[in-house]
Amino acid sequence: MSKWIGCAVSVNCGEPLGYYQGTILKADANTITLTKAFRNGFPYPKSQVTLKAADIKDLKIIEEAKVDPQELSHSTVRVTKTNKKGPRATVSENLQANSSNTGIQQNNASNKTTANRGGTTPARSKPIDIQPNRNKNNTNAGSYNLSSTPKARGGGGSGGSMGGGTERARRRNEACFGDAADPAFEDDFDFEGNLALFDKQAVSWEVRGGAGGAARPDVVADAAMRHDENVLPAPPAARPTLRLPAPLQASHHYTTDDGRTIPAATPRARQMLWESLLRLRLLDSALLLVARAVADLALRLCGGGRRLEARNAHQVPVVVVAAGTHLGGAAGVLTARLLLSHGVRAHVALSGEGAESCALLQRELTAFAAAGGSAAWGMDGAPVADLVVLALYDPLADAGRAGHSEVLGWARAQRAAALALEPPAGGWADTPTRAAVVGGLPTPLDASLGRVFLANIAPPQQIFKEMNIEYQSPFGAASLLPLH
C-alpha cells in the first residue's frame, strides 16, 4: 500500500460523510489517512482525516504521487567536527556543507568507516534526523531533530537540559512550520465540482412549494424577487410635524437635517404663543429653555469645548450680552448667568429704558450679580468680546427694533461673531449675525441673521389646540433644531 502514499485522490463515502479530496498520508488494508483534505468542497478543519474502507463507495486518483515514497522516510546526515579553531558552525551551515560534499545518506550502520582516509582517525559525527520538506513554496516548512542523546554528546547534568530545550524547540518548529500547519496552497480549488454539489434550481423549486416539497407560507414565496427589485420596502412617509391654519402660516418654510418640512409662522402666531405661555404661568420656564439653547450654541461658537479645558485657563472666552429692558432682555441675562456657570467670562450691557417695570429682568440681574457677573448700562466698561449675544427684542410685545444704536454700533465695531436671541423678522440694519435662535414656532427671518435654530420650549398641546395648530414635536433627542 505504500506506493499510493502521496497520491491526490477523491473519495466518495456516500451519506452522511460525503466527498473527500486530499493527499494520501497513510494507507493499509482497513483505513487510509488523507492530509490537506477537503470535505464537500470545503477545507477540512483538522490536518488529517482517516477513512475506513467500509465507508468508501468510490475512490479516484486525481494525481499521481510527486514524491518518491522512499523519500518520506527519515534521513540521516552526519555533521563532522573539525579540529580547526574558529567560530562554531550552525546546524544549517553543517547541513549545507555535508549536502554539497557527501550528500544525504540513508540510516545505515555500514557508513561508520567512510570518513577514514589516509590512515587518519575519523572525526566524531552527530547524526541529525531530517524530515523531508514536501512544501515547495514554504522554505521554512518541515523540522529537524537532534536524535543524539545527551550521553552521546558527552553531556552530563547540563546536557539533559540542552536535550529538553532542543525537543521543545523542535516541537515549536513543527507546530509553526511543519506539515500539520501547512495550508493547501498548491491545490487549486475545484469551483465547478463544488458548484455541482448544489442544485440551486431544485432547492428554489422546493422553497416555492413544487412537487415533492411541502407548501411554504406566502411570505416565503413572495421573498423570491428579481435582481432589480428592492428587498426593503420604501420607508413610510413622515407625518408633518406642524400644520398651521392659513391666517397663521407664512409663505416661507424650513427643512430639517432629515428632510422634514416645517412651515413658518407669522409674527402674530408667535406673539399668541408667548401670550398663552404668560397666561398659563409658563413664561419663566419657556425663557429658561430659550436661554439654555442660546448658551449651548454660544459655547460652540466661541470654542468652549476647547477653550474651557483646564490646560487652557489662560484663554477663557469672553461673551458680552446686549440686553433690552424687557422679557427678551431677561432671557439674555439668564443666558449670561448660564455661561458664567460654565467658566465663561460674561458681561451684560443694558440698553433701553424702563428696566424697573420688568420684574423678571430685575430678578435675573440680581441673580447674575450674586453669581459674580458684571453688568452696566451702555457699553462703558464692556470688555473685548469673543462673542456678542443680542437680546434686544421683546417677542411678547413685538417691540425693540429701535433705540439701541449705541449697542449695535459697538457690536459692529467688534471683530467677534454675533448671536441673535429672539430677533425681529427683519433683523437689525447693518448688523449681521452668525445665527439666530427662536423658540416654539419658526418665523421667516432675514438672511442677515444667519442660520436659524429652533429651541424647544415645551409648550403644552392645549395652546396649540386653542390656536387650531396640529403640532408634533420635531426635536427628538435634541433641544436645539437647525433649520435650513
Q: How would you describe what is shown here?
A:
The protein has 484 residues and is α/β, with parallel strands linked by helices. The chain has 12 helices and 21 strands. The chain has an 8-stranded mixed beta sheet with strand order 15-14-13-16-17-18-19-21, sandwiched between helices. Strands 1, 2, 3, 4, 5 and 6 form a 6-stranded antiparallel beta sheet that branches. A 3-stranded antiparallel beta sheet has the order 7-8-9. Helix 7 (283-301) crosses helix 9 (327-341) and helix 9 packs parallel to helix 10 (359-370). The radius of gyration is 44 Å and the shape is elongated. The two termini are 82 Å apart.
Q: Strand count, sense and closure of the main sheet?
A: 8 strands, mixed
Shape: elongated
Strand content: 15-25%
How many runs of DSSP E, i.e. beta strands?
A: 21
Helix proportion: 25-40%
Rounded mean pLDDT score? 77
Structural class comes to alpha/beta
Tally the helices: what do you get?
Answer: 12
Radius of gyration, CA atoms, in whole angstroms:
44 Å
Distance between the termini: 82 Å
**Which strand order does the major sheet show?**
15-14-13-16-17-18-19-21
> Spans of 5+ residues with little confidence (pLDDT < 50)?
71-77, 79-84, 100-159
At a glance:
Keywords: Cytoplasm. The protein is α/β, with parallel strands linked by helices and 484 residues long.
Kindly list the characteristics that best describe this protein.
484 residues, 6-stranded antiparallel sheet, 21 strands
